[in-house]
Amino acid sequence: MNKLPLLLAPAGDPEALSAAISGGADAVYFGASAYNARMGARNFGDTEIKDAVAKLHAHGVRAHAALNIQLFDRELDGALRAAEALYLSGVDALIVADLGLARLLHKYFPELELHASTQCSGASVRDAEYFASLGFSCMVCARELSLSDIRTLAERSPIDIEMFVHGAICVSVSGQCLFSSLVGGRSGNRGECAQPCRLPYNGAYPLSPKDMCLAGHMREIIDSGVSSLKIEGRMKSADYVYRVTSLYRRLLDERRDADAGEIKAISSAFSRSGFTDAYFTGAVKKKPNEMCGIRTEEDKEKSRATRADVPAPSPVPVSRVEVRIMAGEQSRLSLTVHGRTVTVFGDVPESARTRPLTADEVRERVTKLGGTEYTATDETEFDITVGDGVMMTAAAINELRRRGIAALSDVTGRKGRLPEKAVPVRERAAVGKLTKTAEFLHSSEISLQSREFFDMIYVPLREYDGRADGFVMPAVVYDSEEAEVCRMAERAVSLGARAAILSGAGQLKLLGGAPLHITAGYRYNVCNTESALAALDAGADVVTVSPEATARQMKDIAAHVPTAAIVYGRVPLMVTERCIIRALSGDKCICGDGGVTLTDRRGVSFPIVGDGCRNVIYNSVPIYMADRKSVLSETGLHSYHFIFTTENKDEVGRVIENYMRGAEADAPIRRIK
Fold first, then answer.
1. Which of 133, 386, 593, 662 has the maximum number of C-beta atoms within 10 A of its C-beta?
2. pLDDT more than 70, % of the chain
3. Structural domains in the chain?
4. 653 and 453 Cβ atoms separated by less than 8 Å
């Protein structure tokens, strides 16, 4: 019989944390006041974090803290200090998205568990292997995985696999969404997502998925071998956390699937016109529209009508109390909880001037545990030794008890590790010849002019036919797709490919050791020098900086690492496992036809391109910097990268001429700030 996975519940505030404990969570994850992906939640201040960890540990529950945003160079030191504070508070694990931060955390706190956030886009065994090399002990896998891929991952991964089982899901692959950032100015990769996916497009809501609910698949999930089950919801109420956690606790303990009545009941806590399990079952490929849902007034009324008081966590029983108060020695108290014993010392007793101290008096005072997480019960075992003719004041015994309770809460024994300058000072990178690279969606759009202007031209791996210099790897590669991707890469190399742009470091092993020039693409989400160095260490020759970075932030990285940046083109805003094109076309499979767009309420259109049944949604306007050569020059970039999507050969030619002449744009554009 498989071991039950841990049940991990969310907490956006202290009330939700208590609700998670009452609901039966094995672990709770929460965020500090900065550097986490739910900055809209109340979150926890420094004192609240210490209290939260103490409370969780008192109840035998693990504390996982989220530091899961991408960081720029000038934020790394602050993030490290925040991580040290969490470490000192006793957290059991940190959930991290920035791989540069992870490198430094593993250096300074090697014994602290690091969990790769779902924002890391971990979707395969190769990804897990790479995260293991950085010091991660757990990977929160992509929510888009089917049961088959989850089983493969759990069986072959060198680190623990955690999966989401309930709550809101992104329509884009996590970590691969720039929609809110580039269109609305609020970065989902930095905890500020404005949720453009919940807005109407083309007169409907094609980007708004229902919440995930896998309560009906618990036996399959337990059998899959995953280590941990995660409930989404740090923005949700304590009532929601308690009701959802309680259901999954019951299903796990009873090793069964939820029935229809239980799923209906939990939908009243929160749903968007019901739930979906389409990623898990694979139905996303067959019926993409059935995944969609919005939060209706009826849904809201159900939640209001069924909301109830959340029970407080039951006090934690102390299994054994041992007290020794003897003449001439310090008083001593030992408390045992969850099989763990702590011992503290107090005052030396005095000689009794009137009535000596009795064991009954000591027992009464050390078991006054009101206001703490603990209680003495009829099952508590006592061993109280009091010497003849000794006396201790009530205040002294109370202080001994307080020390004992404090010792139960103090499970760390940890000390600070960070030096005054925790972020290493790196050498400056050698400045070489500036190169210009481009990627086209189709080889047929590559002209002689393009070949003369660009030093390297790429096309998608699936499109590679020998007419380009290199290929772009898919945005994600699941284990079930690995064999096909390896065959395509081998074919591309045989046709003359000499370079590749990767979407993640785990993809390098899919290239079979071919002697290719490797670029870490923009999907690496490189925002700082340390994450760029992680990419270089993993085999990249050049690192593309995140499109979210400003010119100044690019300069910080380019000073130390061979760096590329997108200087022209429509940046991909989303990668969707669900086929939006099919959803918009009346359930017709027309991914290869082109011309499909997503149009918002203002009439702004975003091109959608099919990659198999996976879709890429591009920005409505291109980045344009032809008339800002001085800005680009000051960044110190080593390579300028162009992306051509909807442009035909003539339009590509005009872009090249504009960049050669430094011409101003004659249409709406986006700038590197």
1. 386
2. 98
3. 6-169+209-306 (3.20.20.70), 316-409 (no CATH), 435-569+622-661 (3.20.20.60)
4. no
pLDDT value at position 592? 61
Q: What is the model's pTM?
A: 0.94
Tracing tokens 């960081």 back to the chain, one arrives at 71
Residue 402 pLDDT > 90: yes
Distance CA 194, CA 3 (A): 39
**Cβ neighbours of residue 45 under 8 Å, at least 6 residues apart?**
32, 33
> What does the mean pLDDT of the chain come to?
93
Can you tell me the distance from the alpha carbon of 109 to that of 417, in angstroms, rounded to the nearest whole number?
7
In a 13 Å sphere around the CA of 461, the CA atoms on its Cβ side amount to: 24
Burial 261-291 (b: 16+ CB within 10 A, else e): eebeebbbbbbbbebbbbbbbeebbeebeeb
Per DSSP bridges, beta strands 390-391 and 350-351 are antiparallel
Token duo for residue 601: 């309420």
Is a pLDDT exceeding 80 seen at residue 664? yes
Q: What is the DSSP letter of 531?
A: H
What pLDDT shows up at residue 593? 61
- pLDDT tens-digit readout, 547-570: 999 999 999 999 999 999 999 999
Residue 411 has pLDDT above 80, yes or no: no
Find, among 12, 35, 132, 28, the residue nearest to 81 by Cα.
Answer: 35
Give bridge partners of residue 518 from the DSSP assignment: 500
- What the block records as the tokens of 83 is 């991580």
For residues 22-50, one letter each, b for 16 or more C-beta atoms within 10 angstroms of the residue's C-beta and e for the rest, the string is bbbbbbbbbbbeebbbbbebbbbeeebbb
H/E segment holding residue 510: none
Nearest alpha-carbon partner for 452 in 657, 626, 643, 628: 657
List C-alpha distances in Å: 45 to 35, 38, 41, 50, 82. Answer: 12, 14, 12, 9, 11
